[in-house]
Amino acid sequence: MSNNVLAFIEGEEGHISEDSKSILKEGRRLADEMGGTLVGATHRGSILKDQLNNTGLDECWELPLGITDDPCGQLAGLALAELAKDIQARLILAAHTMLGESVLATAAASLGGAFFSSCREISIKDANFNIHRITCGGKVDEIRTLISSVCLGTVIPSGTGRKRFTGNKSVEYREMLTLIKGAVPEITGEFKAHPDEIDLTEAEFIVAIGGGVGDRKGYEMAARFASLIGATLGGSRIAVDRGFLPNSRLIGLTGHEVAPKIYIGIGISGAPHHLNGIRDAKVIIGINKDPNAPLLKAADIAVVGDAYTILPALIEELGGEL
């Protein structure tokens, strides 16, 4: 078994997704430490070929089916397993997304490898893998050592902001012509999940409320705003303790750690345990009347003002009614 690293790459309108850019950066680091190559794999047509240059990849394989043929990723997982055998990959990575989880879980079952979800970091010591994970809803911080031929892990991107690639390396692009196992499914229908039904850890847009939303009227305005923008509603400990939200909607180290594309905190001061719970959000927007609130200092966009003034204006601008 060689020390090659295989990365499953997701695309967005022909470009590499921001989460997958983080995976490529991590994969390049690990491949260099292991003395191997970094090989990518992607659904057919999901990423333009020129977007794969200068990303740290040594080569990239296009799987023999598109994302519309394989929306849940099981067939990609089977193809990834076959590719991993061919290139003798010891480590297989994907972003911590619903698709990434499905692809790697399927690949792990086919390969008989060890699969770790929601990894914070994967490191190498004495030729073994150390897997750092946060488990039990953020209550347990664990590091496991894996002595195995094949390790698979979905990694939660660290930090905020867009990833930039440097260099001038062209990627060797290849195509898998056949899928050894499985058959392409027929999609009979599609539906969009209601934001209230989406788990906080999987939500792309989150509106969170805190102590600054102090009564039922404030909660209803925040819920209305979240509904208008298609966001999932969550909150800090005080919002849960006041009975506005169930414990399943708690964000922070004692609740859920989240990684949405956009997080909007309304009336949340920003206690350390809450800020740790949103540290992987791509964009953080804070609304608070206290200009010194820690959330505003951590935010990408800080809005100083009273939620009871700002929320009605936002709802009206969005065409909603109070």
**Strand elements, count:** 16
Assign the CATH superfamily of the largest domain.
HUPs
- Give the helices and strands as they follow along the chain: EEEHEEHEHEEEEEEHEHEHEHEH
In total, the number of domains comes to 2
Separation, N- and C-terminal Cα atoms? 62 Å
Which CATH architecture of the largest domain would you pick? 3-Layer(aba) Sandwich
**In DSSP terms, counting alpha (H) and pi (I) runs of 4 or more, how many helices?**
8
The CATH class of the largest domain, by name, is: Alpha Beta
Low-pLDDT residue spans: none
Q: What is the name of the CATH topology of the largest domain?
A: Rossmann fold
Name the assembly state.
single chain
Give the amount of beta strand, in percent. Answer: 25-35%
* Rg calculated over all Cα atoms: 21 Å
Task: Give a structural overview.
The protein has 2 domains: 4-175, Rossmann fold (3-Layer(aba) Sandwich); 195-317, Rossmann fold (3-Layer(aba) Sandwich). It contains 8 helices and 16 strands. It has helices at 18-34, 74-87, 98-111, 216-229, 237-241, 272-277, 294-298, 307-317, and strands at residues 4-8, 11-12, 15-16, 38-42, 59-62, 89-95, 114-125, 128-135, 140-146, 151-155, 172-175, 205-209, 232-235, 262-266, 283-288, 301-304. The relative contact order is 0.11.
Key words describing this protein structure:
322 residues, alpha/beta, Rossmann fold, nine-stranded mixed β-sheet, five-stranded parallel β-sheet, 8 helices, 16 strands, 27% helix, 26% strand, elongated
Topology:
Elements (H helix, E strand, L loop, with lengths): L3 E5 L2 E2 L2 E2 L1 H17 L3 E5 L16 E4 L11 H14 L1 E7 L2 H14 L2 E12 L2 E8 L4 E7 L4 E5 L16 E4 L29 E5 L6 H14 L2 E4 L1 H5 L20 E5 L5 H6 L5 E6 L5 H5 L2 E4 L2 H11 L5
Parallel strand pairs: 1-4, 1-6, 4-5, 5-11, 6-10, 7-10, 12-13, 12-14, 14-15, 15-16
Antiparallel strand pairs: 2-3, 7-8, 8-9
Helix pairs in contact: 2-3, 4-8
Protein name: Acryloyl-CoA reductase electron transfer subunit beta
Organism: Moorella mulderi DSM 14980
Keywords: FAD, Flavoprotein
